[in-house]
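Worked example 4.2. Below are the chains of a multi-component assembly; read each line carefully before continuing.
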Amino acid sequence: MEFLHLTELRKKLDNREVSSSELAKYFLARIKKLEPQLKAFVTVTEEAALKDAQEADEFINSPGENPFLCGIPYVSKDLFATRGIRTTASSKILDEYKPPFDATVTRKLKEQKSVLLGKTNLDEFAHGSSTETSAYGPSHNPWDTSRIPGGSSGGSAAAVAGGLSPWATATETGGSIRQPSSLCGVSGWKPTYGRVSRYGVIAMASSLDSPGAIAHSVEDLAHLAEAMAGQDEKDSTTGHVPVPQYSRNLTADIKGLKIGIPKEYFLDGMEEGVKQRVMEAVKELEKMGAKTVEVALPNTKYGSLVYAIVAPSEISSNLMRYDGIRYGHTVPAAADLLGVYEKSRAEGFGDEAKRRIMTGTYVLSAGYYDAYYKKAQKVRRLIVNEFAEAFKQVDLLVCPSSPNVAIKLGSAKDNPLFGYIADQLNIPGSLAGLPALSVPCGYARPADNDTPSMDGLPVGLQIIGPQWGEQQVFNAGFAYQQATDWHKQYPSLE
Amino acid sequence: MTNSAYKPVIGFEIHVQLATKSKMFSPAPNNPDEAVPNTNIDEIVTGQPGTLPVANKEAIRLAAMVGLALNCTIDEFSKFDRKHYFYPDLPKGYQISQYDQPIAKKGYLDIEVNGKTKRIGITRAHLEEDAGKNVHPEGLPYSLVDYNRAGAPLLEIVTEPDIESAEEGRAFLQELRNIIRYLGASSADMEKGTMRCEPNISVRKPGETTLPKYKVEVKNINSFKFAEAAINFEIARHTEMLEKGEMPRQVTMGWNEKNNCTVEQRSKEDAQDYRYMPDPDLPVLQFPQEYLDELRNRMPELPAQKRTRFLEEYKLPLADVENLINWKELTYYFEGVVSEIDEWINSDVDTKIFKDRISAGEPMASLVGWDRLLAIRQAANWCLGEFSALLNQKLMNPYDSAVTPENFAEMLKLIQQGKISVSAAKSVFKVMYEKGGDPSEIVEDMGLAQVSDEGAIAGAIEKVIAENPKAVTDYKAGQQKSFGFLVGQCMKELKGKGNPQVINDLLKKKLA
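Applying the procedure described above to all two chains together yields the following C-alpha cells:
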C-alpha cells in the first residue's frame, strides 16, 4: 500500500476498495513508526488529516466524478503556506508562525480534497542541498539513514521514498527538487519558471523559485502538474500559457526524439558509477528510437557564479521582512528599535541564512550593484540564449541530476561550497527557468563505499526541456519508466 | 519679501495618493478616510511570508495620465524596484518604488504668476507604495503601528529647481492639484494628506547658474498657505545666514504651524544605502503606443484649457475663472448650467420663423431676447456667490445639492425675463437649495412674481402722479431725488413686486 502510485490509489478509492480515512490512518501510522529514523517532518497534522479524509470520503460517496487527488494523502514542504497550520521554512525565526492564508498550490490541492498529512523538513529557507541547515535538524535518506536525503526538499523526498506519503510538494531554486529526488530514488518535477504559482510559497530567490512535486512515477507527476500548474492572478510571474492535459497526452512513443547530451554536464569530479548509469539510461532511450547528439553549452561554467550573485541578492532582500515586528521570532526586550531588529534576526536566522544575507547585502550595495548584480544578469541572459539555441537543434537534454550518490550526514558541514558544486548540473537550467525531471536510473556505490545497501545508492537521470516544454519532458520520462522498473524499487525500512 | 542680494532656488517633491479602489499591490481597500486602525489590510499589505505583489492597473493608468498631462515622456518600458530599509511601518523591509525607469519623465507645467507665464520643469513621476504609520501612545512604554496606509498607491512627482519664489511655488502646487483633480487621479487634498509636498529650498546670488552646495527639505506641510509660509521662512533664514558669512546646513526641516517656523528634524549628511534592485516579483511594465493614444483620446479638458476657454468664449473676469477652476465640481456644475442655458435658448427659437435671420448668422440668443453672455456671467456669479456660500455651510458638493442645473438655468431665465427681481431670486434659490423644485412653481407658491405688465404698472403710475403733485413739480424743476421717491411710491402701490426697470422707463416717459 505505501508505495502505490497515485493512479493506483485513484482507482482503489473510486472502486471503494479503500477509503480516504483508511489511507490517512495507514500513512499516519507509518509516519509514527518511521519518523524517528527519517526525521522527514517538521509538523504532522494528524487531526486535520483525519477530518479532511472524512470529508473526502463523504465527497467520494456522493454522486459525481472525483477530482484526481480527491482523498489522496500528501505532504507539503514547509515553505508552502497552510492556513492556520504552522509553516516554518525550517527556521527558528518562523518557529510558531501560522499563516492567515493558503498558498495558491495549497488552495488548489484543498479544492481537489487532498488530505494533508504534514509539513516536511527542508534546509532553512531552502538554503542548502542536504536539509542540514534546518533549525530542526537534518532528515535521513531512507536507503541508508546515515546519509543525507539531499535538499533542500529533503524531507519531501525522504517521505515519498520511505513510503510515508504517496507524493509531496517541493520547490526548486537551484536543484532542490532534482537533487533530493535523485539521492532518494524517486521521481521529481521541476517546472518551467512561472508554470506553478509561487503565491504563498515562502520566497528564497524570487526569479528562480519554482514550486513542483515529488512522486513515484512520471505518470503521477503529469497528473500533479495538471493539478498544480496554471496562471495565477496573485503571481504576476506566472505565464498566460494554457495547461495541457499532460496525463492524457502522455505517450511512450519517442521514436525520432532528438536528445542532446551536453558534454559540460559530465564533470570531472563526477562519480564513475553515476556517469555509467546515466549513459546506460541514454542507451535505453536510444533503443526506443531516440536520436542522441552531443551538444556544447560552454556558458555552463558561469552558471554557479551567476547564481552565487543573483540568489543571495534576492535572498537578502526577501529576508528583510523577518524583523520581529509583525510575526515570527522577536526579542522585544531590546534597548531600542535597532536592538529589536538585531537580536530578533541574530537569534532567529541560522548560519547559512546569515551567510547569504551578508553576501547579498554586499553585492547590492551602492557601487557594487553594476559590477555584480547587473553583470550577473547579463551573463544570465547569455545562458538563457544558449539554451534557446540548443533547443533549436534538440528536443531535450539529458544528464545526471547529481554528480554523486547520497553522502554521509555531516560530511558536507565543513564545506560551505558543497551546495554550489553539487548544484552545477541544475543551476544553469534554473537560471533559464527550464522544466526538468529527475527519474531513478539505477544504483552506484558511494565514493566512501560504506553502505549497507547491497547494490549501492540511487542515481537520478535528469531530463531538461525547453520553456513550457513539460509535455515532451514527461513523455521521455514516461517512456523510460515504461521500459525500466527503477522507479518501482523501494528501500527496506522495517 | 526676499532680500534682493539672493535669489531662491526651489524644487518640489510631491506625493499624491491615487484614488484607486484597492492598494498599489494588493486587493485590500485604499481608503484614506478609514479611521479604525489596521482595517485596510490583508496578508500582502502586512508582508506575510510567501505573499506577492500584483501591480494595480488603474494606478498605472492614472500615473500615465498625470504624466501625459504634465507633458512628460512615457517610455515604452518601465519597472518597479525594491528600496530597502528597516522601519516598523514598512512591512516587507523594502518599499516597492521605481528607481531608474520611472513611468514619466522630462515634462513641464506652465503656470501664471502676475500675468506672466512661467514654465516649471518636471524631472520625473514614479509610482510607489506608501508606508504605514507609527503611533506612540502617550505615557506608554511601547509604540503601535497602523498599516491602513501601508501599500496605498503613491505617485511621486519631482520638479526641476525652477521655482524662484513662494508665490510661484504656490501657483505651481495649485495648478498641479487642479490637473490631478480634473484627471480624477486623486482627491489631492493637502489637509487630508492625499497630496503632500516637500519643497527643497536654497538661495544663491543673482546671475549664478550653478546650484547651491546645499539644499533644505521641508516636511509636514499640509496647506498651500503653509507651503508659501515655509518657503518664505527658509529663504529669509538662508539669506540671513549667508549674509553673516555662514553656510546653511543640508538638513530636513519640519514646518511648525503653531509657531509659524521651521524646525530641524534630521541631518541628511550620512545618506542611507537603499540597495535598490529590480523587483523580481513584478514583470516589466510596457506602454505600447496604442495604449498611450487611447489615454490621450480620453484625456479630459485640463484646467489650463478651461481657463482659456472661459476667458475667451464666456468673457468671464479672470478672478471668477480662477475661483471656478479651483473647485472642479463647481466648474463642472457651472458648465452644466451653461449647457442648460443654451438648451433654453435653442428650444425657445422657432427656427421656421427665424430661418432667414439664423442663416444670416444672427446669434440664437438675440432672437429670443436672451443675452447669452450675460446669462453665463450671472450663472458664474450665482455659482461663486449664493450657491458656494450655501454649499460651504455644509461642505457639500454642487451635484449633491437639490438644485439641478436645469432649475438653476430656469431661475436665471426668470431674472432675465424680468419675472422676478434679484432679491426675490435669492429667496427662491434658498428654497430650491433646501427642497429642490422648479423655480417657476416656487415663485408662484411664494407669490414673488414680479409685475412687469406695462398696463398694471401704468395704472399704478397714474395713481401716484395724481396723489403726489408736489413731487412731480419738484422733479420737473430738476430735483432728481423726487424721481426716486415717485418710483418708491409706485413700488409700494405694486406691493414690492413691480419690475423696477419697467417702472423707471414708464415713469420717465410719463413725466417727460
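Take a moment to check your reading of the output against the notes. Residues 6-263+391-488 of chain A form a domain with the Amidase signature (AS) enzymes fold (CATH 3.90.1300.10). Chain A has one domain: 6-263+391-488.
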